[in-house]
Amino acid sequence: SLRGHFAVLRLLWLLSVFGTVLPLDGGMLFPRESSFREVKELNGLWDFRADGSPNRNEGFEKAWHKRQLAEPTVDRDTTVAYMIEMPVPASYNDITQDPTLRDFIGWVWYDREVAVPARWISDQGTRVVLRVGSAHYYSIVWVNGEKVTEHEGGHLPFEAEISSLIRREPMKPCRITIAVNNTLTLETLPPGTIQYMNDSSRYPDGFFVQNMDFDFFNYAGIHRPVLLYTTPKVYVDDITVETNFMDNTGLIRYKVSVQGGFSNTLNITLMDKDGHFVASSNGSSGVLRVVDVKLWWPYLMHENPGYLYSMKVHLIAVSETSTYEDEYTLPLGIRTVNVTNTQFLINNKPFYFHGVNKHEDADIRGRGFDWPLIVKDFNLMKWLGVNSFRTSHYPYAEEILQMCDRHGIVLIDECPGVGIKDIRSFGNASLSHHLVVMDELVRRDKNHPSVVMWSVANEPASEMPPAEFYFKTLIEHTKALDQTRPVTYVTIAEADMDKGGPYVDVVCVNSYFAWYFDQGRLDIVPLQLSTHFENWYRKYQRPIIQSEYGADAVPGLHMDPPMMFTEEYQNALLQSYHDVFDQKRNQYFIGELIWNFADFMTAQGIYRVVGNKKGIFTRQRQPKAAAFLLRKRYWRLANETGRLLPD
Ligand code: GCB
Question: Which residues are the signal sequence here (predicted)?
Answer without folding.
Answer: 1-23
